[in-house]
Amino acid sequence: MSGSDDDPDLLAGEYVLGCLDAEAAAAVAARAAREPTLAAAIRGWEERLAPLATLLPEAAPPPELWQRIAESLPPPRLALAAGQIRRRLRLWQASTAGALALAAALAGLLLWRTPPLPAPTTPPATPRAIATLTPASGQGPVFMAMMGGSGEIVIASAAPLPVAADRSLELWVLPAGATRPRSLGVLPAQGARLVRAADAGPASQLMISLEPRGGSTTGQPTGPILYAGTLSAIE
Amino acid sequence: MSFASANTAPAGYPPVAHAGDDLATLIRRAAEGDRVAFRRIYETRANRLYAVALRITRQSALAADAMQEAFLQLWQNASQFDATRGHAEAWLLSLVRYRALDLIRRHGRETLGAEIPEAEDDAPDPLAALLSSSEGKALHRCLETLEEDRRRLVLSAFVDGLSHQDLAAVTKQPLGTIKSWIRRALQALKKCLDP
Lengths: 235, 195
Known about the structure:
The complex is a heterodimer of chains A (235) and B (195). Chain A is an alpha+beta fold and 235 residues long. Chain A has helices spanning 8-17, 22-34, 36-49, 65-72, 79-94, 98-113, and strands at residues 129-135, 143-147, 152-157, 167-174, 182-187, 192-196, 205-212, 225-230, 232-233.
């Protein structure tokens, strides 16, 4: 790409300015989800340049737009319950028996949810790697993923995620060294999902993007990357 | 760049933000599921944000899509907004801009080239609207320190959503030159704004 890759602050500036192409911009967004320094640099540029929006004359949106937005809103999530679950997940992560506790946590989630899933969602018996997919804002783990020896990955959210009726969350894997993410399918609105990614391993990135209902039709993420995380080997 | 009509907001659109419309507070209330607060965000900011989306996409349908996606994101991610770390207005503006930029990169923009700035606006100071806020004043002063062609690149990228490639095509400059001009302009702006 460009020389500004070496300087996160310049890269952040180019991203906020809007002059990166789609692929480069998506790469920056994914990186920012796991690099707090880059995320902070982006916030800095967003604040520096925001006054430029006042240069444009205001323009009234179509009158029906508010109705469209209001109708697409999912029910409000239960903020308190979600927060409690996240805090517990953080505790589990911090515990010395992290892997075991995580397995128990995911198994617990599966039982507790009992979602109507066609696919089996048994957590891998011997997890090889785990990942926490954090929201792009950098606060609080929301998705947990656990990978078994043959690339089977169980992923679950810590709390039901409200997604509009015309949108889906899609899971992507970016194996270490790969340049383009590969779709692992659309995630259920709640509960866990079992996917297979033979090419995934420790250091592979997992990402979740917001897509039109049913998932991206281009083979690449088309909406914002909402969550991202990297698989770490369990020793 | 045609910024001259900056003060011709359509009549009949009252809601200028006032006390009680502090965006960080409204976002916090929306995070708790308060739809009234969420609607208030839309009422007080939609005209500004839609103008931004429309300028980038040049198509009202795409601009409306960008707004819908951004407000959906706002509703879903309101609880993740951390008022201590970011400026709420800049955060919301960014939600809309990134959605609009993403849409034109996916769908293309039919009218590209037609309205690309070739000369400064006729107004004596096309950036005068910046002078209405203290942050804007600082940015105005720092933009003034840039050479005119560099300043125009920054504005075309941010306001019109032109990519490196678009800017190279419009200015008939090599891509590498554009990239390096923008980087230098960004460095100069940062140095000027964060002394």
